[in-house]
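U., I forgot to send this yesterday:
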Amino acid sequence: MERLLRPKEACQLLSISYSTLLRWIREGKIRVVRTEGGKYRIPYSEIKKYLERREEIRAVIYARVSSADQREDLERQVNYLTNYATAKGYKVVEVIKDVASGLNTQRKGLLRLFKLVEGRSVDIVLITYKDRLTRFGFEYLEEFFSTTGVRIDVVLGEEPEDTKELVEDLISIITSFAGKIYGMRSHKKTVLVQGVKELIGELSGEDSEVKG
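Result:
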């Protein structure tokens, strides 16, 4: 008798979310059987067929830094992820680099990545840290990618705090909100943003003195 898998087991083997599995079932991509209690069970042969089709895993490497003077770090990310992909046996189909803030949703590289995901041209996205892909909303991107069967592999886990980039992002957020409240060319906006920069500078100086 053929082995029947619970949905959770099937999701783990296929590296997809439960919502993606349900969608594949509705679309007829995976055959299921129902138990007497009306629950889904997935024949192992269905899982095996899908895994065989995906034997060659297509990977996209995505690397990002916030400014041009961090080019060396950008290349370090690419080299590390390339070696990681090789060790895992993945086929790297594209390497994408961005030099922009993690708050910028219109990054050229990020938009290119979206096209690859939407076109089902990739199976896994490799990044060093979560905030290389986005400063906020990582879980939303992860869920979006999973609907097309794409998994995000955060290779190095949690990133050490980069104070400089955090400050730059904070100023970007304040500038954006101040612009919406007062208008982008308003004197009040300029004064507010300048005041925040000075305050951050003072706090950084105090922090350096304490550490010294």
